[in-house]
Specification:
This protein has 144 residues and is an alpha+beta fold. Helices cover 44% and strands 17% of the residues.
Length: 144
């Protein structure tokens, strides 16, 4: 009945104010890949699902999140291909998955050059009861 807050709103209230301010600043300067993907995900354009971008979640800022299908989407540039970046991403993914979310990672290049394939992977993940190996393996060269 009326007045309840959604899960995403509750997470925002509990967040560190510095993290929230940083997320806001990141929304003002998106990458080309974030802009392109956001064009398709914003305003419930993608199958009526509500996505948020540059959203504080626990101790992180995730690129895109949909609480309805418990999905986090991360877009990675070339720096994620370096050893330190890859290790950090693995640890972060494990922690986010422990919260019950599926995490999909895409290279920025994939979003810019093959957005249809990226959107199909997101769709299949949102509409499946099991996780398929849909995200790129990150064995490519990153941004070209």
């Amino acid at each position: 009945m009326g007045g309840g807050r959604g899960e995403g709103e509750l997470l925002m209230i509990k967040q560190n104010p510095k993290l929230t301010a940083y997320a806001r600043s990141m929304r003002k300067e998106p990458t080309d890949a974030e802009n392109k993907l956001w064009h398709f995900l914003r305003a419930k354009r993608f199958n009526g699902l509500k996505f948020r971008r540059q959203q504080p979640f626990k101790h992180y800022i995730v690129d895109f999140i949909c609480h309805d299908c418990k999905l986090i989407i991360e877009l990675d540039g070339g720096q994620h291909n370096e050893l330190d970046g890859a290790d950090y991403d693995r640890q972060r993914t494990i922690l986010l998955e422990q919260e019950g979310y599926k995490v999909l990672r895409f290279w920025n290049h994939d979003v810019l050059k093959n957005h249809e394939g990226v959107l199909q992977a997101i769709y299949l993940t949102c509409h499946s009861e099991f996780t398929l190996p849909l995200a790129p393996s990150h064995q490519g060269s990153g941004d070209l």
